[in-house]
Fold:
Amino acid sequence: MTKTAVMKKNQKQSGQDKEELLKLEAKYCSWGDTVHYTDELKIFDRSEGSYLYERDGTEYLDLQMWYSAVNFGYANKRLCDALKRQIDKLPQLACQYLHEEKILLASKLAQRMERTFKEKGRIHFNVGGSAAIEDSLKVVRRHTNRNLVFAFMGGYHGRTLGASAITSSFRYRDRFGYFADRALFIPFPYCFRCYYGKKRESCDFYCVKQFEKLFETEYYSVLNPKNGHCEFCAFYVEPIQGTGGYVVPPLEYFPKLKEILDRYNILLVDDEIQMGIFRTGKFLAIEHFGVTPDIAVFGKALTNGLNPLSGIWAKEKLISPEVFGPGSTHSTFSSNPLGTAVALETIKLIEETDFASQVNSKGKYFLARFKQLMKKYPEIGDVDGLGLALRIEICKKDGYTPDKKLTDAIVDIGLSGKLTAGGKRRGLILDVGGYYKNVFTLAPSFYIEKKEIDLAIDLFEEALKKGIAATA
Ligand SMILES: Cc1ncc(COP(=O)(O)O)c(C=O)c1O
Structure:
């Protein structure tokens, strides 16, 4: 049966037309998630490679791939097959019992970390990213006996209560009461919009010096100079900010920060949930900076968006059985056999494929094409990226003032599915991030082909032109 015939059959079988389904959604689904950020609601039916398909067959080129959860392409056969095999072999098992895939996956991850960071450590699994962040907070608290942490302005660590407390955006905490463990938020080196109004060429890492200054006297609130104790026991970082707008800091930044953290025994917790698993061209984004975290947190693309699995790696001294003993944390589905089986296959795929060079060369080509567009359109204020994590900042004609209205218009035009570049009616899936919600954060599939990158540029340009006309 052809794909179109399958789609038609599915539509018939489901029996509900789109309008009826949307009415049911409006009435029975909670609106507390992010679906209603836009009015352009779509119901998708199929996904493959870099594309999503609506029930009528309209094709959408996806440049955000489930916020970087699907790095290896939709319906990746090798990874889907691993899931199917596990369904036939060991589909369910309480996490209290062992299965081979969990042990092999933990070993492979810990051994990779040991090769990279020359540090022994262990892996603890969970289901979603936020849950793994919660686990990391427990490890930090257990080790330090403290609970306050530093985190970055523009950082995003999830929406459970603990993760919200260390996520800078107040919008996520507003309406949910008092957060006693709210982090102390430090400006991120977002050089295009420097918090201190400095220029990268001449700032001499003013932001690092400002952080260091906090420790100068007890009256700056973080240090007891009498015994050297710092009230803040860890610094949670995303080396490349995700939701914050795929901001790439200068390479020297993290080594400088780490020096200060080491001076005051502050742990470095590396949130790689979005940027890990080769999104930036390295297994973990922190590897670009040559510093070793005390804890690394991962999720999303570990299972390519199939049965979710997240986890933390922590240095042995933080997570050894003596300090983080049985029952320290637990979740019913934490090391579920379906998730661990897919993740194990993902790691094997990574071991057999040179994603470092593939991601870098595709990213460079994509970036160069966007830089060409930037020359044509003053509304593109900044284009940057690392590997296949790319950012396009949409501004007013001055190339600097954020233009959220134009950004939203471009998203909706892409989502309308009515673009025609490439000679066919299509849509374009874009995700918006950034401090002013004016940044397209692009996380395309690692298997995106050159001709698809060219198509993406043409579709983006068409949406941009239409957006400029609509918002003028
Ligand atoms: C850097 C980062 N940390 C944590 C999270 C939270 O993960 P989850 O949505 O799976 O709970 C996300 C999700 O986008 C993320 O990007």
